[in-house]
Each structure stands twice: as C-alpha cells, then as structure tokens.
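It would be a great kindness if you could assist me with a short task in structural biology. A protein sequence and the structure tokens that stand for its backbone fold form the material at issue. I should value your view on which stretches of the chain appear to form regular backbone elements. The record follows directly beneath this note.
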Amino acid sequence: MISNRPYLIRAVYQWIVDNEWTPHLQVDANYPGVEVPREFVDEGFIVLNVSPTAAQAVDLGNDWISFRARFQGVERKIGLPPQAVHAIFARENGQGMPFPPEAYPDESATPSKSDKPKRPSLKIVK
C-alpha cells in the first residue's frame, strides 16, 4: 500500500501557506538518504523552513522531497525521503501534523543484482 505521509505533507503545507504562515519540516537527519547541511543538525534532527519565500523549487513528491535554500547565505540543495519527516508545522503557532517515526529501511532486504528472479522454466508433462 502507498504511504499517505507524502499526501498529508503536501496538504498541510498548502494549508499553512494558504493561511500565510511559515511551513517548517522537522526531519530525522540520520534517516538513510537525507541530504541536509550536517552543521545545522541538532540531536539528530533538523528543522527546515520550506516557505515559498525561503525555499526555491520546492518539490513535495511521493518518493522524494527536494528544494534549494540558503544557510548562512550559501545556497544548498536539500533532499530527503518523506519517511524522514517527523512533523510539518507553522512557525507562528505550531499548528500542523506530527508523524510517527518510520523504521529505517532494512538494507539487507534490498535485492542485489545476484538476487534477480530466475526466469520461469517450462516442463513437458506427458
């Protein structure tokens, strides 16, 4: 089943922006695949301002969230899977939506090239 998390992130983001508040994402910076400036990570988490005035090219996709933002005047590319988002909220009043932590993907469960499924074989039955 497809996760509802990316859909809820987009909906709450739009609701926050429509109310002229400032959307922020609380992200687990240790989740595999997260690309954020590590110098701003505090106790494994980073809070990112994703408002239209602070972030450019915001893409809240089903499999990947990406945007560009400035940190101390330096533009950085940010990327993360939606599973790394722990909350989306408005800076002004804290309203938004928390999410339960996602288990980290089990790297041993990912198939390697040698684990390709074998072609089916046919037998003649007499």
